[in-house]
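ok so dumb question maybe but i'm new to this and my supervisor (M.) told me to 'just get the structure for NUDIX hydrolase' and walked off. so i did the thing. is this what she meant?? sequence i used:
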Amino acid sequence: MKKERTCPKCGETIEIYKNPFPTVDIIIEVEEKIVLIKRKNPPLGWALPGGFVDYGESLEEAAIREAREETGLEVELVCQFYTYSAPGRDPRFHTITTVYIAKARGEPEGADDAALARLFSLDEIPFNELVFDHGNIIADYINWKHGKSEFLPGKACKKKIPRC
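this is what came out, is it supposed to look like this??
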């Protein structure tokens, strides 16, 4: 999105670009369960661990860092799951998230932006308390995990695009 403003010093018209923010979310598998965090900051609720990609950081580095900061777990990234880009997926501003699946061991502990971190079996997921589009992401993950979906995402895209 491009907007124009007048420069206060020279009076020339300048273009201002507003771009989406890149983020990562991590589905951390610990045995047969996944990690969710209870957010400290609005929007409040349960979420996948994740956050903003820092300047100069790769998506993979951001995923590992965010997992460590919010859960205390050292993760091993297994694969890149999917990228979700619906403009309204975050009520604060337009974000684009790349979701990773990772494996870890141990008990998560909430830290940084997470008031709490907890393991959930797939049938215990509090879907009605999830923020952002994390309910759709987890539903896509469950379908994929059980072999019910070859292509992703479920509701986020009208035309399903195959993976390479």
